[in-house]
Amino acid sequence: MRNKILYVGSMVFPDESAGAPTSFSLSKSFRDLGYEVTLLGLSKKTTDYMKLQKEQINGFTCYFHKCPETIGEWFEHTFSIKKIKEVINELGEENVFAIVLMEYEAVPLIKISKYCKKRGIHVIADAEEWYGKSNLSFPKNLVKDFDTSLRMN
Fold first, then answer.
1. How many other CB atoms are there within 10 angstroms of residue 3's CB atom?
2. What is the pTM (predicted TM-score) of this model?
3. CA distance 103 to 146
């Protein structure tokens, strides 16, 4: 039975970003509807970007890794769905009803949408903000503005 929802985003656990309390509130609503919710986000408590850690926070199983700092870590964070697939495998993809992606980067959003469509998993985009053109200088603005353009369109 598909009774699990995976909530994914750049929320910093346990409550070090605005997205963390929001994700827990929405997760409580999903739980009230009968779903088992697991969250995947970030933490300032860990020092390993590559390794997912698991902890119970506010009554939910939460997976997290270090906030990206290096160029390589930011590149993976902006383009990869490896960590999402890792958690889906832990949950058993046959059990996952939906994935909620909070303010997620465009390229992995597209990748995870294709991945989920093939497996009958619903994708929900939790878009809280509307982004305009970045204030970064050239060439730094290219990646950010490309991502924003894809996300908003």
1. 10
2. 0.83
3. 15
- Tokens representing 19 are 């997205």
Tokens linked to 114: 């294709």
In angstroms, rounded to a whole number, what is the distance separating the alpha carbons of residues 100 and 95?
Answer: 15
Per-residue pLDDT of 38-84, as tens digits, reads: 999 988 888 888 889 999 999 999 999 888 888 888 888 888 999 99
Describe the strand order of the beta sheet including 122-126 as a list of residue ranges.
Answer: 53-57, 60-66, 36-43, 4-13, 96-102, 122-126
Q: In terms of Cα–Cα distance, which of 142, 108, 147 is closest to 131?
A: 147
3-state secondary structure of 31: helix
- Give the position of tokens 């870590």: 73
Distance CA 72, CA 69 (A): 8
Q: How far apart are CA 69 and CA 85, in angstroms?
A: 22
Contact of 128 with 102, CB cutoff 8 Å? yes
Q: Which residues, including other chains, have CB under 8 Å from residue 134's CB and lie 6 or more apart? A: 141, 144, 145, 148
pLDDT in tens, 9-40: 888 887 777 778 888 999 999 999 999 999 99
Contact 94, 70 (CB under 8 A): no
